[in-house]
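Below is how a single chain appears once it has passed through the pipeline. First comes the sequence as given, then the structure the pipeline wrote out for it. We keep one example in the README because the format questions we get most often are answered faster by looking than by reading.
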Amino acid sequence: MPTKAAAPKPKARPKGPPFNLAKAAAAARAVSANELGQVPVLMIHRVMAKPQYPLDRSTKELYDEFTGMAKQGYVPVTAAEFVAGKINIPAGRHPVVLTFDDGSITHADFDGAGNPKPDTAVAVIQRVAKENPGFRPVATFFVNRDPFYGGSKPGVETMRWLTRNGFEVANHTTNHKDLSKMSRAEVVKEIGSDEKMIEDATGKPSTTFAFPFGSLSRAHLDWAQRGTKLAKWDFQGMFLAGWKPSDSPYAGSFDPRQIPRIRDKEKIKEDDCKRYCSTAWLEWLAQNPDKRYTSDGNPATIAFPQDKMIYLYTRYKEWACPY
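Resulting structure:
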């Protein structure tokens, strides 16, 4: 296995005296907090009223799934927030990371008044957030060349709109090719040209990256994460195609360069979705609440049952709040 990359920075602790462990532990116990639990990172492609291909999701399916998650206490965080360990959500709630691949017009497009069109992913997220207070209207969009092509706004303007409205725009390479079959120079060109497009549009570099097809090799982890002397970037988290929830960013097992995602799909035979797609995993996490990340609501602590102390990444001991 590759060397473990640098872990995300801990939650920022407020200035002043250390937190009161007994008081914090009592509050964490009251909500069965487990901030070393697993986090679902959903991988979503096109969204449309009538899906055309297996990876497509209907607007209704997305709305129903997100509404169901809101009712279960899930709160969206961006991929950037997740890898940085900035999971500042209310006590008793669970983080979920909504990621959309390929910069499809079905993710973000606008009507004549400049509002997101009803069948787009952004509109669905905002609708669910409006109907379910606490469900944050945020997500991460991994984009390629000509993002949101064919929309009412140029792709550059759509990326700017997304970042102004709390969404994350991140790198997915320019041409969506299999990086594992490329030379270092080709990998750097694929990532670097996409990075330039994103930086030119948003004014800031990407924090996260998603491998096309989830394909990578040992060497590509280093090339993809930091580039070269002539073309540099520094992704804090890199996402795979995946098939299971991610470990907590505070766990010793968390590798920010190989973060698994879950295909967003109901329980069907294809790709063993009866076990490994979003509907199946969300049901499993609901049936196994001790395995799921549950927040203590305190950004100054990392709370979990005492018997899970062995899973904490040692650099976070100062923030530990076992109970």
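DSSP finds nine helices and twelve strands in the chain.

See the next section for the split statistics.
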